[in-house]
Write a structure and sequence with these properties.
This protein is of the alpha+beta class. It is built from 5 helices and 13 strands. The chain has a 7-stranded antiparallel beta sheet with strand order 2-1-5-8-9-4-3, covered by helices on one side. The protein has a two-stranded antiparallel sheet with strand order 6-7. Strands 10-11 form a two-stranded antiparallel ribbon. The termini are far apart.
Length: 206
């Protein structure tokens, strides 16, 4: 089967992408507006970019029903700062509670019951219950598509401070069993990391 994305709907293309690009790590992004209103929202188009400087990216799409930009993006463009909190299974339900498109005056920390805690270098708070959080300064925003529903942005941020739960960090490595992260699948489905295997990469011959 071959499918031309220009010959089907946004919804059909979206279903193919989220059903095949799996599992996806979740960026639980906390921001603060210029008016001091906190915002907390999950995004599953998220990954690392490079390690020097330590850089991440996530992709907030325009809202699917009206094409407007989301509060997270608006706050980041205004303040140039944000925090990416990683999602362990223990906070999965509060995370989902923040996925609704609330009015910009709504504080999702209050909706979810999660705890905002001050950061060191940026003004938005991190999520106390998250086992790993990245304080970030904005590097750049890349706009993809136009102003229509389903278009989006790539937000690239430089990590300026790591916050890691002591129980998660062992001998210079992240203990996945303790971190217990979840990944995003399609629809309402998520996945756990419960089965891993190693493949040793060949060393380049001298």
């Amino acid at each position: 089967m071959i499918i031309d994305p220009t010959e089907q709907s946004l919804k059909e293309n979206h279903k193919i992408m989220i059903g095949s690009i799996v599992p996806r790590p979740i960026a639980f992004v906390s921001t603060k507006s210029n008016d001091g209103i906190l915002n907390l929202a999950p995004f599953s188009y998220f990954n690392g970019v490079c390690s020097n400087p330590p850089t991440i990216m996530f992709a907030p799409a325009r809202r699917g029903y009206d094409g407007l930009t989301k509060d997270t993006l608006n706050n980041i463009q205004d303040t140039k700062e944000f925090v990416v909190n990683l999602v362990s299974e223990e906070i999965s339900e509060p995370m989902v509670a923040c996925a609704t498109d609330y009015d910009k005056e709504i504080d999702e920390f209050e909706i979810s019951g999660l705890t905002p805690i001050d950061c060191v270098k940026v003004k938005p708070p991190r999520v106390k219950e998250s086992k790993v959080s990245f304080e970030c300064s904005l590097n750049t925003v890349v706009e993809i598509g136009g102003a229509e529903a389903g278009a989006g942005f790539i937000v690239i941020g430089t990590i300026v401070m790591f916050h890691i739960d002591d129980m998660v960090y062992k001998d210079g490595h992240i203990d996945l069993e303790v971190l217990n992260p979840i990944g995003r699948l399609a629809g309402n489905a998520y996945t756990r990391i419960i089965d891993t295997f190693d493949i040793v990469r060949q060393v380049k011959p001298k």
